Amino acid sequence: MRASEIRELMKLASRPDIVSFSGGMPGPELFPVEEIDEIYSGLPLSVKRDALQYGPTPGYPPLIESLKTYLKSRGLSLDGNRILITTGSLQAIYLTAKVFLDPGDRVVTEDPTFIGAIAAFRSFQVKLDGVPLDDDGIEMNGFVQQLDSKPIPKLAYLMPNFNNPAGLTMSRKRRIEVIETLKRRDIVLLEDDPYHELYFDESDRELVTPIKALAEESFPICYAGSFSKMIGPGMRLGWLLAPDEISLQCEIAKQSVDACSPTFTQVLAHSFLSQGKLDPYLKRLRIAYARRAASILKSLDAHMPDGVIWTKPRGGFYVWVTLPKGLDASEVFTASVNRGAAFVVGKAFDPQGIRNNHLRLSFSNPPEDQIEDGIRIIAGVIKEQMKK
Ligand SMILES: Cc1ncc(COP(=O)(O)O)c(C=O)c1O
Questions:
Q1: Which residues line ligand 1 (CB under 6 A)?
Q2: Class of residue 127 by CB neighbours under 10 A (exposed 0-12, middle 13-18, buried 19+)
Q3: Which parts of 206-293 are beta strand (E)?
Q4: What is the pLDDT of residue 5?
Q5: Each residue of 20-46: pLDDT tens digit?
């Protein structure tokens, strides 16, 4: 485990007067507070009591049932698979890592990739090999090369939808190439999909179809999902949909981690799904985040100097900015924070923790009317540093 320089930087970003593009946090004013109030006050006393009790390790049985219906509606087959409710999807990643990884093993990831997964994998003393992304997703030559390097990797970890931090989405064609490649090698895929529902345009509903849904069980896929971005991260609820045998191993691992995920929020999540509250709420969320994304992209267009480039997300929370040669994200960060805007520096998402010429801007949390001011500050710092 490494003391995190990034965490130190982030402490600077917690001042209340700062426009923060740093945390991957939903906008608090978007939370379904009224729906949750209504659900809780409508629960019978016996269920309210259950909600405060320990529950079975795999999850609150009614939630498992409602989640099955939800996952089937998203094209996922449950045949030969089990659901394990986890304490956030980060726990699903952690448990999969605990089951598969020993010191010295290799994991192939996208580059850049999710900071939490990097930390979870590293805690098992493994070697991470990142493969760059292009506009269609993980770059295939590099992927194949890494998969075939010795020792053969134990896991491939991919985020096909609205990658954190890059905001990129894997094309259908690339998903099929990934399936063909992994199928021939029988390497386990850990597919992480917490932003699945947050596409901005209804026409992308097909595009986000999980690899697990397309692969038809041709090789083992552990699929991690989350309620964090579709209800709220304070629920601390996610899930792992994995082949029976793997799921049972993860369940055993979970018994010694936290025994069960919060029953209280599982009860609420079950009612949210079974009372049909999810779809209308997601419609509201997609509209709100699409507006924030449009606003940050417009501000970047208006204020960033030539030589700076960025991704154009179709959903999710993030824009990934590439700085011109010679600029360092930590220096841009320090000057920006002093003037009132924060983001996360690129090296947090580099599997090797080195390359630092990117910024991750999260547009989900700051109120829409502050986005332009924040971008103006960061762009001003970049312009000054380009002159040095
Ligand atoms: C790609 C990705 N995976 C997993 C998680 C973990 O989310 P949670 O544990 O809240 O479900 C996050 C959170 O930001 C994420 O961005």
A1: 24, 88-90, 114, 116, 159, 164, 192, 194, 226, 228, 233, 238
A2: middle
A3: 221-226, 238-243
A4: 63
A5: 999 889 999 999 999 999 999 999 999
